[in-house]
């Protein structure tokens, strides 16, 4: 049976949040996630030991409806989930209804039914970010900064960059060893950007960052 868990199913603040869809022992099938709410969200889905880690970036506060389907048109247990997002509006946006969705053809997984995230012990306040790319970026160039998580325990690093109109097309996160990460991103238009860095489900110090592209 497929299930889902994580703070992102209940809500959070504007910026990146996450949840896990547990497909352990469920066999292969098509996973479909759609989110309705007051803003478009950037949806990402990647494999994890239990199944799939889904991250989404709500750009405006309000109520979001998260629908999760697996192997057909039927919702999984608990779906649709209602998430209440608070915080400041991160983009122009509007009050109209927006829908974002992602579809993944999954593979058979055998694994633990326990949350990997719940085993992590971390402290996002001890993450240190450095580099020019945290405050200023240039069109068509590789803008970089480093994230030092060596004293912050164990978790997953999440980085998102959102421009005046849409999310940044390319964000590369490279682990250099000893929980030191190098982040590179490219912007295609001038304006004010929001850069979010999270260690697990928590913003690191000073995140979200305000980035100016002259």
Structural commentary:
There is one protein chain. The chain folds into two domains: 3-105, Immunoglobulin-like; 124-213, Immunoglobulin-like (Sandwich), CATH 2.60.40.10. 2% of the residues lie in helices and 49% in strands. The protein has one helix and 17 strands. The longest helix is centred in the middle third of the chain and has 4 residues, at 116-119. The model is unreliable at 109-118 (pLDDT under 50). One of its GO terms (biological process) is nervous system development. One of its GO terms (molecular function) is actin filament binding. Belongs to the filamin family. Keywords: Repeat.
- H and E string: EEEEEEEEEHEEEEEEEE
Q: Roughly what fraction of the amino acids lie in strands?
A: over 45%
Q: What is the highest CATH level, the class of the largest domain?
A: Mainly Beta
Helix content: under 10%
What's this entry about, in short?
The chain has 214 residues and is mostly beta strands.
């Amino acid at each position: 049976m497929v299930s889902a868990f994580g703070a992102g199913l209940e809500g959070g603040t504007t910026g990146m949040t996450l949840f896990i869809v547990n497909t352990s022992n469920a066999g292969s099938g098509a996973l479909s996630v759609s989110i309705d709410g007051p803003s478009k969200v950037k949806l990402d889905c990647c494999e994890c030991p239990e199944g799939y880690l889904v991250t989404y970036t709500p750009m405006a506060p309000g109520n979001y409806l998260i629908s999760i389907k697996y192997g057909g048109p039927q919702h999984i247990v608990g779906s649709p989930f209602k998430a209440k997002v608070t915080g400041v509006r991160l983009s122009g946006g509007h009050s109209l209804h927006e829908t974002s969705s992602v579809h993944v053809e999954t593979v058979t997984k055998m694994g633990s039914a326990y949350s990997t995230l719940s085993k992590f012990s971390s402290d996002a306040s001890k993450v240190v970010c450095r580099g020019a790319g945290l405050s200023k970026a240039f069109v068509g160039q590789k803008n970089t900064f480093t994230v030092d998580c060596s004293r912050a325990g164990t978790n997953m690093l999440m980085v998102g960059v959102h421009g005046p109109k849409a999310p940044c097309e390319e964000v590369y996160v490279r682990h250099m060893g000893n929980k030191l990460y190098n982040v590179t991103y490219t912007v295609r238009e001038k304006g004010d950007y929001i850069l979010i860095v999270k260690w697990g489900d928590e913003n690191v110090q000073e995140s979200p960052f305000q980035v100016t592209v002259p």
